[in-house]
Structures are given as structure tokens and as C-alpha cells.
Amino acid sequence: MTPGVHQVLAGAAQRDAITNHALEARAVIREMGIRSEVFCEADHIDPTLAGEVLPHTAWSHRAGAGDRPILHYSIASPAFWEIADQADGLAVHYHNITPAELLWQFAPGIALECQDGRRRLGELAGRVGWAAADSTFNASELADLGFPPASVVGVMRRAPVRHGSPSEETDGTRLLFVGRGIPNKAQHDLVFALAALREAGVDAELRLVGSWAGTDGYRRYVESLAESLGIAHRVSILGSVDDDVLAAEYERASVFLCLSDHEGYCVPLVEAMERDLPIVALAQGAVPETAGEAALLLDEKPPSLVAEAVIEVLGNEALGARMAAGRAARLDDLAVERVAGRVREFVAGMT
Asked: What is the CATH number of domain 5-152?
């Protein structure tokens, strides 16, 4: 009998990129005729996913002899080691871990978790028979730790929700960033960039979408920064939103602006490309790989330079045409069916 291939998460939540990937990949694996479930550390399953995602403690009676787990590693979790000890064969899909030094000031608890997660990742290297990663950037980190050569799979996503025409008129330039409210995502730098744009005479606003859970101190800093710069009325912190609201935010945006200091993939860049949004982004981590020619990439991010870049992508027709061609090329490679094909190939190699 072909062994089952199951996925194991540290946490499972609605609108979480890794959770979404695992659920979509499960469907792909089942279409291959292979038994597949998604397990998660028992204490970190969103109640709305009960039944869809199983507690890791269920492995012993839901997985069969010879079944193999794929550990979706973005933080350390006791579930990984408990299941690894029960399984015959082990795979890792690495989604990257934020370096702790980017988090100490405003999120020391999360910094400690990330530090421990990076340390413990190396402990798995000798036990893993198959490795996958979202990006070549992530794959290179695994190689440095002694893991087997990693297949660059990407990230499975749901088809984008579209509204058609925006439901409200938007005046001025609307900057959008989608991502967790946390220091490495650098929402504070987005506020500085907005201030620079407004000083340059651009009627701009900033929309921040994403959860700030566990980072209240950083949120207060971003809010106080906007207040001190006199632009609090032009900064909207929306928090986590549902798919319809997120789609509307993309469709009303003028520019997707990403100044994150660390990204192992960055799904929102792909979502912005799907909506034909011009992108200005800091060339850190996997951002250049994910965005390619679809973005105006910056090597540094002083507010004046970021403001100039935003003005350029909105007003330079030749640059706009180049970015449009870049979007088409990247979206072809990142299309759901292309990623599904890479998932199939990786799983086939495990069975």
C-alpha cells in the first residue's frame, strides 16, 4: 500500500498562508490517490478549523504504518518532534524564521520563539529524508544547515476573490501593505514614507492590513509615530480582515508598498500582482525572487527615496509597461496549477 503523506503545522488559523497552503496541498495529495490529513499542535488550532485540522495527538490512531509527515517549519513546535519519533520517513517544508534581532525591541517574546526555532531546525537535519522550501532563499538556509537539497515548491493559495469595480471612489494615492503587524515587516518605515510623500505634495494615505496579535507595543509605536508626524488621520490600521474586505483593499489601492526587512516568500506580493498593482519593495530576503521584474526594487529605504519610487511607478509609463510584463512572467510561474504540479512532484518522490 502506498504510504500516506500528511502535513504537520505548529499553528493553524484562518487567513494564515501556511495553513492555507497545507489545506490546498492536502487536496492535491488526495487527488493523487494518497491518504492525507493536516495535523497541528493541539493547543494551536483555530476553533473554526476543528475537524479540518486534526490535533497532533491524533497521529497514532489516524496515520497508518509507514505514513510520512511533512513538517511545515516556520517556528519550533513539540508536535514536530513527537510525530517525527512515530513516523517512518520525514520531510520538511521550510517557510523561514524571522531573525530574532529584528524583533527584540518590540516583540521579545516572539524573538525568543524565533531564536529557539532557528536553533532547533538544525536538530532535524540528520533526520530528514526530503526537503522543500517556498523559495531558493529558504532552500539555501536549509542547505547551510546540512539538509538534503530542497525542492523549491512555492506556496499553494486559494483563487483570488474579486469584486470587479471598486465599490467606493478613492481620492489621491492609496498605499497598501498586507502583512502581520510586527517589527520585521517595518510598518513604521511605511509611516515615514507616507510622511515623505505628503511633504512632496502627494495626497496619499496608507492602509495596513494584518493581525497585530502579540505586538501591542509595536502597534502603539506605529500609531504614536503617525501622530507625531501629523499624519495619523491618513493611516488606517485595519487589522485582520476577511477575504472580501482584503480583495476590496487590493482593488482600491494605487501602489503595494513593502519595506519588510525579512521575507521568506511574501504571498501578498503575489496577491498584488494578481490585481495588476504596481509594487515598490525593499530587496530583502526572497522579495526579489518572488516579485522579479513586477516590482521596483530598492536596496535601501530612506523615506525620500521611497517617496520618489512611489511617484515614479505611478507616473513613468515605460516603467509601468515593464512591470506589467514582469507580472505576467511571475504569475505564470506562480500560478496555482504550477505550484500544485511541484507539490505533486515532491510528494511522488516521498512515496
From this structure: 3.40.50.2000
